[in-house]
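Hey,
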Amino acid sequence: DRDVTGVQTCALPILMAGCDLAQLGVTAAVVAFLLLGPAAVVTGRPAVAVLAGAAAAQGVAAAVFQPAAAGLVPALVPSARLADANALSQVGAAATRVAGLATAGLLAAVAGPGGPAWTFALDAATFAVSAVSLILIRPTGPEPCGQAAPGGRAASARGRPAWRAELRAGWTAF
């Protein structure tokens, strides 16, 4: 009931929600820059460096999110349905990418001079919805969340899994 890093699968939704919240923060900062930043006031467009920094920060969050998402799917469905669940997950991800890009282009085009800011604001809202949805996920499996597996680490003093310790222990395998 652990992924390659050693983190309990019950910690994956929280890790993924944290990634979404980080991306929400970065996207909100871009919105603020678009609306209030000096480049936006003068040119109506953000500086390339700001967008490059935002893209790099979102890339880091996505690099953590994607493997966690892949590790979460097996904790949510029976093994007999895993192939179907993975296929559905991939189709859903591809469909939302296409729909998201089309919506962003349309919104940026019809919203006038504030279009880019509204587009990024809508993107930030999707990260908020995703984070809330992820927090509501309760993986199932042979190892209940918050309990130690045989040979595993115990839960923290608050009854939550000591996932940071699990993460450190898992990374020692590398």
